[in-house]
Design goal:
Number of strands of chain B: 15
CATH class of chain A: Alpha Beta
Oligomer: heterodimer
Largest sheet of chain B: 8 strands, parallel, barrel
Strand order of the largest sheet of chain A: 1-2-3-4-5-6-7-11
Number of helices of chain A: 11
Shape of chain B: globular
Strand order of the largest sheet of chain B: 1-2-3-4-5-6-7-14
Helix content of chain B: 25-40%
Order of helices and strands of chain A: EHEHEHEEHEHEHEEEHEHHEHH
Radius of gyration of chain B: 19 Å
Number of domains of chain B: 2
Largest interface: A-B, 70 and 70 residues
Radius of gyration of chain A: 18 Å
Structural class of chain B: alpha/beta
CATH architecture of the largest domain in chain B: Alpha-Beta Barrel
Distance between the termini of chain B: 31 Å
Strand content of chain A: 15-25%
Helix content of chain A: 25-40%
Order of helices and strands of chain B: EHEHEHEHEHEHEHHEEEEEEHEHE
Largest sheet of chain A: 8 strands, parallel, barrel
Distance between the termini of chain A: 35 Å
Number of domains of chain A: 1
CATH class of the largest domain in chain B: Alpha Beta
Amino acid sequence: MKLTVGPNQFFWKPEEWSAFYTALAEAPVERVVLGELVCSKRLPFYQDRIPAAIEALQGAGKAVAVTSLALITLKRERKLSAELIEAGVEVEINDLTMLAYLPEGAGFSVGPLVNVYNDSTLSWLAGRGATSICLPPELPLDSVERLAHLGRDLGVAIEVWGHGRVPLAISGRCYHARLHGHSKDNCRFACEDDPDGLKLATLEGQDFLAINGVQTLSDSFACADHQIERLRETGVTRVRLSPHSGDFAAVCALYRARIDGQIERGAVAGALKTMQPGIPLSDGFLTGTRGAEWSGDSARTSSTT
Amino acid sequence: MVMEIVCPAGTPASLRAAVKAGAHTVYCGFADETNARNFPGLNFDRDEIRDGIAFAHDHGAKVLVAINTFPRAGAEPLWHRALADAESAGADAVILADLGLLAHAAQHHPNLRRHLSVQAAAANADMINFYARAFGVKRVVLPRVLSVQEITAINAETEVETEVFVFGGLCVMAEGRCMLSSYATGQSPNMNGVCSPASHVDYHDEAGALSARLGGYTIHQVAAGEPAPYPTLCKGCFQAGEKTGHLFEDPVSLNAETLIPQLAEAGVTALKIEGRQRSRAYVAKVVRNFRAAVDAQAAGLPMPEGMLASLTEGQAATAGAYKKTWR
C-alpha cells in the first residue's frame, strides 16, 4: 500500500506552508495532493509558492496532483478551476464542476469530497478518465471492499481516508467569520489563527467538531491504524494522510512503518497519543458504527478526560 | 407566467391535500432508503404511488418521485427498481442526485424526465450544464447556498429549468455533502436518507436543566419545564473560542415568500416547499398560501405577506442565503 498526503485543509502562514512541503519532500510518502481545497480567498497568500513546492516534491520522486476547490460557486472560482486543468499537473477533483472543464480522455483523480458510493458511479468516473479515487470518508469497510474490487478490475487505484480531522461538511457560510461577527465577504481571515481548525464543544464541554472557515470537520483525528490489514485485504492500494501542524513527517513515517510491518497494530495510535496528548482518535466510519467511534477505546471518553 | 409550486407529500393523504389546495406539482418517495426523507411511517408503497399519480393527473397536477440518496455499494438494484417503478406508475419526472444513478436512468429510462436533486449540490452554471449534457437533466433544484443575484446569473447561463426552496427546513451545509449526522449517529442523509434521526435522540434531565442529545452529544439545553427543540445537529447550541451560541445556524426555518417577485425576475421556474414529514393540514395551508402568492405575482398584484409566520419552526424565519448577508 502507498501513502498519499492530501491537500492542507487549513489556512497557514505562507512561510509555514512552504516549510511543510519542504519537510514533506523527505517524508516516506509516494504521492502528494496540494493546493486550496476549502476557500478561494486563501489562495492568493501562497499561490506563488505552489510551483516551487511541486518541483521539490517531484524532484524527491513523488507523484503530485493539485486539488480543486470543494465548493465552486463564484465566477472567479469557476475561472480559477478551469485554469487548473492547464497547470500541467494531475488534477484531483473535489467538486463535480471540474467535469465541465476536463477534456474528454484526460486523466484525473477523484478526491474524498466527491460522492462515490457505488459501482455505477465508480464505473462512470473510470470511463470518463479517473485513474484514482479517494473514497468519501463516510463509507464503511464493506462498501470500501466492493469498490476496491471494482477499482482493481477497472484499473482505478482506490484510496481511503487514513489520518487527520475528517471533513464532514462544506457550506456557503463561513463559520469562522460568523463566530467573529463578520460576514463571509468581509471575513478578515478569521481562520488564520487556527492551524488545525477551531474546536467546537457541546454546552457540557464535550469536544465534538472543529470549524475551519466554510468547512466543518470532526474534532477527532481519523486513524486507520487498526484497519490496515483489513484495508489491504479489501484491495485498497492507498491510504490518505491529511496534513496537520506539528511534526507531520513523523506522522507519515509512523504510517509507513505500520504498513511495512515494522511496527505492530496499535503502535501508530499509541505514538500519536504521545505526540499529541489528549488527541481523540476515530475509525468509526470504516468500522461502520458511527464516525466518532474509536475501535481502541472510546474517542469520546478520551476527549473528555 | 405563473411560477410552479412544488409541494411535499409524505403520505397519500398529504398528496391529495396538496393537490386540492392548489399544488401544481407534488413530490414524494418510496418507503425505503432510496429517498432523502426515509422516516418511519412516511412515504409510499408501489400501489400508493400509482394511485397518487392517477389522482394528481386527474386534477391536472404533476408528480415527481424523489430517488435522491446515493445507492449503497452492492444494493443498487433497489434504486434501479425504484426508477423502473416510478416510470411505470406514470411519474412526470424523477429527482436524482447520484452520478451513477443518473447514468443508469439516462441509459435505461431515456423517456423518464430527470431532475437534479438539491442533494447533488449543483451550485454553478458550468456544473448544471454538465449534467444537462451528460445525462439530459431538464431541471435543477438549486442548493440553498445561493443568493438571488447568483440565481439570476445561473439562469442567464443555462437552459436547464431552476427550482428553488422557498419554505420549510433549511440546510446550512451544501446538501448531499454533509456527514455531520453520520459522524454522531452512523445514519446519514446520503446513505440512509435521514439526518439527526429520532432513533438516536434522547432527553437528559440533570440539575434543573434538560439536554436534548443526539448520539450522546448535547445539541440543546433548556431549563427544566421549558420545551426543548428537536436536536437537529447543525441548529444546535455549541461553544467555540470565547463564544457560546448557535454557531452554525439559529433554529430557524426558511421563508422566502416575500422574495417571490425577485425569484420570478431571476428566471426561476418552480418554487419548492420542504416538509414531506409534515402533516397534511400543514401542507394544505402552506400550499394555499404559496398558490395565492404566485397567482398574485403573475397578475401583478402585491404579495400577501406574513401569512405563514405561525407555521415556521420555533416561530422564527429567515430568507437564508437568498440575501447575501446570510453568509
